[in-house]
Epsilon-sarcoglycan (Cyprinus carpio), 371 residues
Amino acid sequence: MLIVFAVFTAGFLLVRADIITEAPVGQLFVYELHREVFQREFEPFHKVFGQVYNDPMVFKCNKERFPDLPRWLRFTQRDAYDNGFLYGTPLPRDQGRNIIEIFVINKRNYETFKERLVINVGPAVKQMPYQAEFFIELREIEKVLPAAVQAEIKLDIQNLWRTSRLEFVNITSALDRGGRVPLPLPGYFEGVYVKLGSDQPFSPCMLRLETAEHQRECASGGKISGDCSRCTNPINCITWCKSTLFDLSKPVPPAPLPTVGSGVLAWGGEFSPPESPPDRDFFPDYIVTVIVPLALVLILCLILSYIMCCRREGVLKRNAKTPDLQLYHHHTIQGDASELRRMAGGDRRTADRPRQCLQPLLMAEQAMAES
Ligand SMILES: *[C@@H]1O[C@H](CO)[C@@H](O)[C@H](O)[C@H]1NC(C)=O
């Protein structure tokens, strides 16, 4: 029964349909990878037995048949016990089907599971000529991406902008913008930039951001008078001095055209090749580097061969010149020394028993006994 159930479930997993989502150009796309959804895929039977797991999981995401994600899409996951997020803003050149492979690795039993996410990037649905970027100091990117938090932040900005027609354009961690990694202590945050867009013009209060007075106040770091932002949740408060407006409603003046010349280079005179360098005499160098070492080697060779061939005595010649008695004397000295060495080596029994020295003593004792 259980086996049939297992085969059935496995078959069901194999024919799982891809997840299909839409992402319009110019708007923030966020896809949350819920750990509890994948937990069900890993342990389909444990529900039967009432066991509930909360496994650490990591996600590896890439574009199908590519090593990395498409350039507009980014992935983040703080911890193996947190959900992962795929997020980014597609540009007009990114339109089309993006197939993302998601590998889920269960860090408890090292099972893996593969999922396909199809993102259809379509043309822009909303014109947002007015855009503004705000810096939220007390947040981290993973904490801002969930839809509920996005709604909270949007509500605050709606009050500031005095319109409800707002859309997120981009959310970026300050780390991706050159920010510093905070200390791993409570109360230190990476900071997040959020960019929102609308078809409604900026409120008069927001327009204060563009005045020279605002810039002066922010540069001096003193009291900020124009801040009209309000935050219902203190951790969503924006930093007024780091807010920027982007007015895309005015047409951008085209870049000045490059000036076209006559197309003919100016006459630069006749070409005269450089003179060849003067001749150099290499003979002294040759003598110093080749002849002198060679001569030295030759002299050393001669000295050495004279010593080896003409100054050697040889064992036979030496023995012939030495008297026999002296030869015998030195021979026994050598033998005694090696015998002593052998005995010192600890092996006394293998040493020859003393003979010649004891013989006269024994004989003298015998003579005394006889007399
Ligand atoms: C969103 O922000 C990232 C990081 O700053 C940037 O690379 C990207 O171009 C932005 N996208 C848009 C559409 O502004």
